[in-house]
Hints:
mainly alpha; 71% helix; 0% strand; rod-shaped
Amino acid sequence: MRFKKTSLLAKLLILAVAIFAIIQLVSNTDKLIVKRKEADALQESLLYEEQEKAQLMQDIEDYGSDDSVKAIARSRLHMVEAGEIVFRDADMHD
Length: 94
């Protein structure tokens, strides 16, 4: 049984294809890592936005409660409850 000798050109062609495949694999791996990091960042951002939404929904639900009305009256209208003493800094301007 005799094996035919492959030509130098065929060996070089196989080597070139193998090198090209390795380069493509490394390049795609780098792209995959970048995309995975982007996906992780988006997932974290989504989690933050969902928490923010939950807080806003809670604020909407609490809006008409007595505590909410008191908090709004204190912060926006500078109202105080009976018997409270208010100290103001003379250097501060409202």
